[in-house]
Amino acid sequence: MSGKISYEEGERRLNVASGRIVRAWADLETTLCFGLQNFLATDQFRTRIVWMSLSNFRSRLNLLMRLGETYLSAEGVEHMRRLERRMKRLAKTRNTIAHCVGGFHTEDQLVRYINDIDADDVGVDFIGEQTFTIHNLESFPDAIDAVRRDYYSLGENEGVVLYRETKMHREPPDRHSHRSGPRNRSNPEAQPSPAPKPLQITQLQFRSGTTPIDPLSYSWFVRPLP
Questions:
Q1: Reduced to 3 DSSP states, what percent helix, strand and coil does the chain have, rounded to the nearest 5?
Q2: Are 13 and 138 spatial neighbours (Cβ–Cβ below 8 Å)?
């Protein structure tokens, strides 16, 4: 039938798409790692040790979110949460493609992956199935790259600021009434310390030993030394 993909062509396109997905995911994790360097305010080598010591993507994303919620402005946190939701959805599909047995089926022109999944009725479903069209898989690397680019340009969004101080230390005491309320009552004249000056993300520069940082200068990430 005209337009029907043969098994050989389907497998070829599946393999090409899978390779592009692996490469796109590696680019995303590299971008996230250099973002971690900003949050930790340290050199790239210490950052990479921390990154490689976390065993999976979920742990790495949790670390980034905790740092973001602690050191970013409210606008920055909202952007990070939206990015987190997108990355979690992408990670679920990427894990299926990377770790499950799958192949192209000419009968319905779908790629099928078989996976062991939790199931309420039987405990574990040993023939859990997820399907994609070839076009779905071929567009998936672009979706990964899109979220990478949005993270890359996080600091270009209005109101996104990275602070040196933690959120609880830069907010007035009355914003943390459960901690500071009794102290305020006992010392009603106590004044909150002045709000800290934010560290604009686009101005970050860190030294890396005695050599300049590689020119992976994502817009809000580390810039090469002058």
A1: 55, 15, 30
A2: yes
